[in-house]
């Protein structure tokens, strides 16, 4: 080795990946926060100008968001934030009902004292953000709570699918909860889930989880039908 720095093409590749990750993170936040509503078109040239970058990292960012289900790239329209149909909502919650109780049943007996301490901190932060009406934090904390509950299941593929499902319906669920006052019920049910798991009442916790998912799905479907 002669100490020669990275070749220009490799350096550019690293830079593009770093920039594209930052662009993807900001666009992801805007979509999940509702700043970019469903049906919006994301134009590469406009985004490149806004972020003061070339179109390459923007294109890479949009491809990443498409893989996450947050945008759909059409041949002639470019990237569009998709609207979930009622049929898609049904499927998402059917899958959640199928997978999440199984993950909880496998994970809950293995949760450690440190896991419960982290769950308690999430619940406390969730309550603080609820009182402050910081809508942007609700989805993030909800996903963190559920995935931590399932983290000891040792079923990484299933957990990955569930993580995607939670993200897919996050925009709509957050909007529905904020407009219909469902956050307080979700807060209470989350606290009871932790209580039941901590007490070793795993079957009761799984039943509550099923009811929790069914309630959110039913409320979301009703909300979308009435919009």
From TrEMBL:
Query: What species was this sequence derived from?
Result: Chelatococcus sambhunathii
Could you name the domain of life of the organism this protein comes from? Bacteria
- Taxon lineage: Bacteria, Pseudomonadati, Pseudomonadota, Alphaproteobacteria, Hyphomicrobiales
Record-linked InterPro entries:
GntR_C, TF_FadR/GntR_C, Tscrpt_reg_HTH_GntR, WH-like_DNA-bd_sf, WH_DNA-bd_sf
PROSITE patterns linked = HTH_GNTR
Which keywords belong to this entry?
Answer: DNA-binding, Transcription, Transcription regulation
Q: Which PANTHER family match?
A: TRANSCRIPTIONAL REGULATOR, GNTR FAMILY, TRANSCRIPTIONAL REGULATORY PROTEIN
User: What CDD domains does the entry give?
Assistant: WHTH_GntR
HTH gntR-type domain location, by residue?
Answer: 17-84
What Pfam families does the annotation carry? FCD (PF07729), GntR (PF00392)
> What is this protein's record name?
DNA-binding transcriptional regulator, GntR family
